[in-house]
Amino acid sequence: MESHTVIATARVTSWGAIIGGVITVLAISVLLSVLETALGLSRVEPYTEQPAQGVGSAVTVWSFISILISLACGGYVAGRLAGAA
Fold this sequence. Notes:
Layout: H1 15-42, H2 55-82
Helix pairs in contact: 1-2
């Protein structure tokens, strides 16, 4: 009868990478929100009967896209900073 020894290795959490990813998400989210605000306000036509027509759907779509972009960038940064940890 053979005996095998299995050594379990624990994965180390890289908190620096997590914090770096969160800061990246927040920074990109703020930048894209400023861009969203500028583009949204440029669509407003104050001298028409419905000055904010179409702005709501544009804000919804752009918010969804900007959240996906910022989360993807934050995940990428966190993954790169974590390395092999």
